[in-house]
Amino acid sequence: MTDTRDPSRRGFLTGALAIGGGFVAARAGAETAPDPAITELQPWQQYLGEGVDARPYGFPSEHEAHVVRRNVPWLTADATSSVNFTPLHELDGIITPNGLCFERHHGGIAELDPGSYRLMINGLVDSPLVFTMQDLLRFPRENRVHFLECAANSGMEWRGAQLNGCQFTHGMIHNVMYTGVPLRLLLEEAGVRTSAAWILAEGADASGMTRSIPLEKALDDCLVAFKMNGEALRPEQGYPVRLVVPGWEGNMWVKWLRRIEVGDQPWHHREETSKYTDLLPDGRARRFTWEMDAKSVITSPSPQAPIPHGPGPMVLTGLAWSGRGTIPRVDVTLDGGVTWTEARMSGPSFDKSLHRFYHDFVWDGRPMLLQSRAHDSTGYVQPTKDALREIRGENSIYHNNGIQTWAVNESGVAENVEIS
């Protein structure tokens, strides 16, 4: 069988094994102490562990206690209307564990009793309806994997490199399997009138979150979801019911969903006028910029995930996504864009979902400028930050999908930088 592995990588591994074997022989000849991690019984081998009922709801190893959501205290005045960030640099694959999905609240976490939960549909409908939790569970349901990204993800980077870690620059995103009832079925049950063109989704939290959504989108792929990754929504993710609006900014995915009003025009509430619009250089604001453009980030190496070894074989990895479809291709560069290489895509490719990419190479120990560039299924290519600023300026907060750069030094330590 022909060996198709990279010759430089194969050569390094062969050499390392030979050197390693010689090194072990030399140590043995000098009668140095053997490695106790191999030759001696470890503590966990000498006593019985806990039984099957000791942890009725499982949790990660104590050695993974550092893998948590984190916030940036100075970003907001109060944690009840704030955000924390998914530790993207610690994860692999495309599914975000429920306990690590970033949080964004406008009035803190609403704690709802599912027995008292009600969802009302009113407005331009033939029959205004109220559904209980049990009513919703009687409708046909679907399972879909989608990303949820806050429109302000990477927002601090508009004016230059700010936050040193992909958890903080890109961590307002997660990707889970949602289970729920297509919103279309509930609207059909109520009977949408021909004059209808919009819906207003309203949350039950203290902020009274509302967003206007075109009826076309509501009837297309929106879900009224009650499960994520197979279990009930977490309270911080909208328990017992939230709206799923695939590919569109996270602010529209109203949590603790309590009401859907059908109307003939948008409501122009706070979250679509003074907030979640994009201020341009001339003072005008783009509104209704719902779709999340194609974007990517290298999660390792990155500032929170330095290279733990010296020169030699290594794996670069990251995530890419698009609110308009799938990601068939991601390019990576080690030299700041002078040369690009097509990355290796691995794992399922779902519509409006995260996609995992890898680049396997032999690092020569020299400094690197790492970037990734996503291509989505519409043909759109992720732009540089400079190209984005030429059109949008620097006044915006939302929808920054520019290419991210990590500078890696000879020691393998990475830093958030910008290059022109």
TrEMBL record:
Q: Is-annotated flag, keyword Oxidoreductase?
A: yes
Cofactor(s), names only, from the UniProt record: Mo-molybdopterin
All copies of domain Oxidoreductase molybdopterin-binding, residue ranges = 106-267
Q: Which Pfam families match?
A: Mo-co_dimer, Oxidored_molyb
Among the GO biological process terms of this entry, one is: sulfur compound metabolic process
Spell out the molecular function terms from Gene Ontology: heme binding; molybdenum ion binding; molybdopterin cofactor binding; sulfite oxidase activity
What InterPro entries would the database entry show?
Ig_E-set, MoCF_OxRdtse_dimer, Mopterin_OxRdtase_euk, OxRdtase_Mopterin-bd_dom, OxRdtase_Mopterin-bd_sf, Sulfite_DH_SoxC, TAT_signal
- Give the UniProt keywords, A-Z: Metal-binding, Molybdenum, Oxidoreductase
PROSITE patterns referenced in this protein's UniProt entry, alphabetically: TAT
Give a yes or no for keyword Metal-binding in this entry.
yes
List residues of the Moybdenum cofactor oxidoreductase dimerisation domain. 287-404
Q: NCBIfam families from the entry?
A: sulfite_DH_soxC
Task: Tell me the protein's name.
Answer: Molybdopterin binding oxidoreductase
Protein source organism: Roseivivax isoporae LMG 25204
Source organism phylogeny: Bacteria, Pseudomonadati, Pseudomonadota, Alphaproteobacteria, Rhodobacterales
